[in-house]
Amino acid sequence: MSAAPLLALEHVSKRFVRAPDLAGKIAKVLGADVRTEIVRAVDDVSLTVAKGEVVGLVGESGCGKSTLGRVVAHIHKPTEGRVLWRGRDTAGLSGAEARDAALKIQMIFQDPFASLNPRMKVAEIIGEAPYVHGLADRRGLDAYVADVMRRVGLDPSYRQRYPHQFSGGQRQRIGIARALAVQPEFVVCDEAVAALDVSIQAQVLNLFMELRRELDLTYLFISHDLGVVEHLSDRVVIMYLGRVVETAPTEALFAEPAHPYTRGLLSAVPRLTSRKTAFRSVEGEIPSPLNPPPGCHFHPRCPHAMERCRIEAPVLKEVAPGRTAACHLHD
Amino acid sequence: MSAETLRVEGLQTHFFTRAGVLKAVDGVSVAVGRGRVLGLVGESGSGKSVTGFSIMGLVDPPGRIVGGRILFQGRDIVGLPEGEMRRLRGSRIAMIFQDPMMTLNPVLRIDTQMIEAVRAHDDVSKAEARARSRDALGRVGIPSPDERLKAYPHQFSGGMRQRVAIAIALLHQPDLIIADEPTTALDVTIQGQILAEVQTLARETGTALVWITHDLAVVAGLADDIAVMYAGKVVEAGPVDRVLDRPIHPYTRGLIGSVPGRNRRGVPLAQIPGMTPSLLSLPPGCAFRGRCARADAACATMPELSPFGLDHLARCVHPHLEVMPG
Fold first, then answer.
1. Which of A115, A159, B244, B304 is 20–30 Å from A83 (CA)?
2. Which residue range(s) make up the domain with A167?
3. Which ipTM value was assigned to this complex?
4. pLDDT-derived band at B1, boundaries 50, 70, 90
């Protein structure tokens, strides 16, 4: 038997509930149709990530990819299901063990402008967590911060500066340094390069690959950009309206997508090599997660939808070795 | 009437700030003909958007067009009296912005806004203006346009809002549309839908299109010609196939090498070191030389935009003349 995966999600769901406010309750008493609104942001997702693996999590706005990332990073508690870290349920951990598991999973955010405290100096932003968690003492902190900054390609002599004195790309490096400062093993990157210019994005992507090699990191790389994911990931997970619709090794997925949604996504991606193409895409729009369609969530946009797709939600099952898809076409 | 819809010659748009003169656009020349698509590519601060705003006559103080000509159907529109510019803007030249809420008024219904836009330029009845609005919405792929006319902008999704903005731009069947990153904020399937619509429209109506973007891949599929901008200047221009397959300028090469997802999984991307220089403190000579592997003393004087084969221009003293590998 192989060792437990570094991280495993078992039937994880995350629901956001908005109960009617006072005005809503009064309106309800008076006979208005006011209901509690429930968004199933993540709906019964199971996923494993092996040590050293880079898993790309892809989907369009509102598909739940960021929520799933936040569940993995302990920012949200799952409504249902379990998050296993090294084979142990994180909900059952306590004290030092819980803190350790939380520290080992760090997150890097999309917006390098909103995710850094504008009133803190870079040295404080990067140094606060390692100091609090005893990874560096007061005397060694300065050298520790300088070391982390060098690692992400920042000049340590800038450590007394504030975030606004840096460019977007440098700010993203500060965010990466902050995550790395507590020596994580697993990093959740949520659209970490989406806000950057192409040439700066390439620098940061190269940095991610370098850090992976040097520090033996494992990534959950969340992105809407299939090009970025194709470049970086070993394995790709495609989400649609809260559910995983396909998982596959990167090459296999891009060579031969198994789910109609994945196929549509890939055909919509503009490529440098396709000149004067007739652009094609999936028809329609992603429905509201407040009121998802019954059966397979994708059926209203799917060119192959059958009667069964409108009634029965397909389960994710193996369609080839190492590949899964949730689609009735594979029955 | 000349076949060229737009010709920009030596355009200079400078911003006179307290910190100094910011030469956002400094000697840009581009042209686009009827029914053709020009991709204007560059990163943040390259001056691509300011070029678009200059063509629209929408540069606000402290910015000012200080030099060059903008020939629209052969007529210079720089310094045109505001009244005349207004007659062109929205009817002959239209613009689509990245954020459709820059076009749409959040407190007015779509029909109010569209009918107003029609009647601003054409003396038609309300009923006729409404009919034209409905047709325009239908043309950009908005389902049940009659009902959607009565909705407010917030009742539309981001992609649908951008479609409305495009429909408004199309109302008067303009000869030229300036599109400033109109699909950047959209999901990839919605972007694909909108690119498909725009492509068909440009082909059918003969509208010339200037597509401003940072995304080379979008331009590859959409444009006939490309102009690559860096620090306020065009550094390379030419037909799409020439520029993307045989890029001459080291910056263009770097930009293409930076695009991930070219079947090179795990291989480091050919990144460009450093970052875009501040426009306030540009070194003399080529603005890219601080980041360029080929730079030497010769780069201290600004190279001219010179021809390298048919219609292919580049501004470099150390041009790459071989086909780009990979």
1. A115
2. 7-233
3. 0.83
4. very low
